[in-house]
Design goal:
single chain, 710 residues, 44 strands
Amino acid sequence: MNRISTNLQPPTLLAALCLLLAVPSSHAQAQIASEERAALIELYQATGGANWYRKRLWLGVAGSECEWYGVICSGPANDRYVQRLVLRDNNLVGELPASLAALERLDSLQLSDNQLGGSLPESLWNLPALQYLWLAGNEFEGSLPGRLLANNLTWIDLSDNRLEGYGALPEAVGTAPRELRLAGNRFDEPPPAAWRQSGAIGNLDLARNRLANLIDLGPDGWPGLSGLNLAHNQIETLIAAELPDLVELDLADNRISDWTLANAAVPALEALNLRANRIDSARPGELPSHPNLKSLDLSFNRIEGPWTLLDGDWPALEALHLAGNKLSGVLPEQLPEQGQLRLLDLAENGFDGLPPDFEWPAGLENLDLSGNGFSGEIPPGLMMLENLVPAAAYGATRGLNLCWNDWEPGSEDMADFIAEHHRGRNFGLCIARERAELNPAISGSYFDPERDGEGINLMLLEDGSALFYWFTYDHQGDQHWRIGQADASGKFVEFPVLYQARGRFGFGHSKRITHHGGLSTLGHARIDALADGGLGILFGHRYPVILTPPPGSQPDIGVTELRLDYQPLSRLAGTRCDNQHPQQGLSGPWFSPEREGEGFVLEVTENGNALVYWYTYQPGASGEQAWMIGTGQFDGMELVIDPLYQPVGGGFWLNFDPDGVDLVPWGRLSLSFDDELNGQIEYVSELPLYGSGSYSIQRLARPMLADCEG
């Protein structure tokens, strides 16, 4: 998923430093002022400190405050003070006390991902040294105070709360533009004119709010604003007169049908994202030239017809995304001059030919022509593109993609070139093959016969998204699983992020037991539905994987993406009108709210069996993952799996060894359901560290089933 967000991301180095400093020192520190100690104690008491996940040394004797978990002090021995307070994801529940105002030299407050609520306390705006404020992922409500623009704050993250509306501004506001992140709240309009004209907002993120229909930024300019993110709303039209400093504008996933900002003055604009809107026309004259524009994303709109795009002057354009439209026909003999074009994405259109003397922009580093109607030999001119990113480049997620066409290499030199540059290796798995439209019948489990012992589960959900589980192993052969969710339509679904979690069996993911954090991102995946019923899968890993060489040979190059074919192992009952089953409504993911970060995937299959995956963690404090699998038959609303197996061994990616997989009998698992929303599980393990237990579970999501009425 492409998002224009370079200037809207948190200062990664600073955030990492804050997390590092959150680990308390073991050395004794001098005493802070009594007022600061009292403020910390009141914070502990007001937010349920006894139930915090991590509270090491809190409420210790006077002089120990700088060793309390998350309290970072500064200053000489005779003048110690609290400089930073980092209690992210720590089960703080309640309202912030007014006594926080006593922390007069606090410059960073990080309390994200807790359960803090009420109005934003006035005490926050009485902290003269505060520069960085993280309160995302809480339950704050009410309007946004105007005073947050009147102090020294430079970074304010209030995303994913319940805020709506804007308060009045004070007489004087700060002059330095600040980062203001408000995504995932309840705002239905942009900031009022006084806020916009103050010059105090440098980057504004209002993604995932309730902005809809016409959004009018008024007749006056918005000085100082360099980044504006309005993605994932329901905007139909955006009107602005002048945005003199705007560099990045993200309007992805709205309802815009006409070219936006056609009459607005945006002289500094460098990146414009209109992905996933309703634009059905982009002809010369409708796209005003933007001399500084470097990135334009018009992917997944409704633009159709032959190539007539961008005939104007775009001297700075480096990246052009046009995937997922209805463009067709033959590309022109030469693309219009686009400055130093480095990325061209024409995937999933209807192009079917190239002129004999076609010239690619010489500076291309990334070229995606997948999912079109090209046929015959791959144009030899591609080999002249000396800057194309090699397939094994560190962190490469692009490069060359020619999949889902009827092309063939045509020469050994071209075959060698493809092998070196094409995404995912195994080019033969995605060329000259037919795909199918995604539909409910795709839901189920899949495996590669040459990789017996690992596999995936894919479910198309009622809301139109797809849920993906990958059950495999790590480099040491220990169990490993990843999860992704993304919108699904057409013939493929792309998961830009696959999540991995750490935790402990019986507790859930690690935010409940350790300071190392909860979810992490380790890769991506794309799944194409094949006409033969299988899946073509492109796995991506964040870091290059060095493949284990055969004895006596040199190590293979590092691999960041790998393409594999998977065949169906099971199909969900009810995904077609001819494969119904009485318990089909129980299929889907289930979990316990008390054990977030782990759960069960239940498949009621078309032959009447039930397949269950239990994705969880190892016992103890290692944080390592575990997963179990088993099958059984329903007896009414009860399902018993005995034995449940835990596969161990294997390896990662091309280092996977199916002969190394050992199916260890884990124990007995029973599931009983009250209805299609609630149930209970009971387990008894043969492995002593897992023990036995029982608890309630709830449905997490419903798979999409076939509509068979009538």
